Amino acid sequence: MGARLLREAVRRAGKPGMPINFDCLAMTEYAHTAILNNRGARPTDNWMLFPSYPPATIRMITLNRAAMSLEYSNPILTYGSGSLYQFAGGPETSAIHIVADCIGLALLDNIWGLIAGFATPPSRVTNLDEYYTTAWTNNIASLAIFRNCKGITGGGGVGTEAGLCTEMQFYEIAVSRVACEPRSSFLVGNYVNGMKDDYFDGLTARWCVELGNEIVGLNLIDANDMIKTLLKNPKIQIGNEPDGKRFQEVYDLETVQPTKEYQDMYTRVSKKIKNLVGINTK
């Protein structure tokens, strides 16, 4: 059902032939087989392969799903992840587990890309120290993969603490996007941590692309300075982040365009952030 809804979504968007990144894995290999059809995951679609728990292990069900997708000609993207202070221990061991997951899953063959994924604390990030620790773990793992693998590498998604139509969310996305550039990582999407319903949108994705186009070729030292500058901004209020608004509140549901309030915020805040990190704006 989930696969059919995704296919229906792209049809309604006027792009019925658009490839889909299937990261909604079926719970069993039998259910996985049911998705592989023209109304679900087609050969032109990409399949994301998640690691198993405990970390650095691969379950038989994962191998079976991979074999089925490869036989069906789906390209596969691997995903490594660690959980801070839980399954994988602290920041350093979590980073090691993220890299190990990617290496292990890449051995399954026909892998077109590696995503370092992201380490997460036991619950929502509650202070700036946890924010720094999580970011360090994710960045160091992704950098290790980029430097040592000859392939397309990614940095997972941008998970923000603040919700839609808040200045803080734009700052958080900027921090993640700047961190991705020196390690040549692509981003797979934006979402609000906790995966709240109706908190996904296109304007934040546009901000990722717009900022990314401005910082192509950014080196590690400059990126680090930019991130420190962004995180010092009073709009970053970890532990006291604004909930923001739902999609229905910031988009015209008939035209699927941002409201004037949201668009004006985007224009104002994006220019402010660019000026803050030294990107010239006219």
Characterise this structure.
This protein has a single domain, classed as Monomethylamine methyltransferase MtmB (TIM Barrel, Alpha-Beta Barrel), CATH 3.20.20.460. Helix content is 45%, strand content 11%. It contains 10 helices and 10 strands. The strands form 3 sheets. It has a 6-stranded parallel β-sheet, with helices on one face. A two-stranded parallel ribbon has the order 6-8. A two-stranded antiparallel ribbon has the order 9-10. Helix 5 links the parallel strand 4 and strand 5. It is globular. The protein starts with a helix and ends in a 6-residue tail after the last helix. The mean pLDDT is 81.
* Domain count: 1
Largest sheet properties = 6 strands, parallel
Specify the helix fraction band.
40-55%
- CATH H-level homologous superfamily name: Monomethylamine methyltransferase MtmB
- Radius of gyration (CA) equals 19 Å
CATH topology grouping: TIM Barrel
CATH architecture: Alpha-Beta Barrel
Largest beta sheet: what is the strand line-up? 1-2-3-4-5-7
The CATH class is identified as Alpha Beta
Report the sheet-strand fraction.
5-15%
Order of helices and strands: HEHEHEHEHEEHEEHHHEEH
In the predicted model, the low-confidence regions spanning at least 5 consecutive residues are none
How would the global form be characterised? globular
Q: Find the count of extended strands (DSSP E, 2+ residues).
A: 10
Q: Mean pLDDT, as a whole number?
A: 81
Q: How many helices in DSSP terms?
A: 10
Distance between the termini: 48 Å
Structural class: alpha/beta
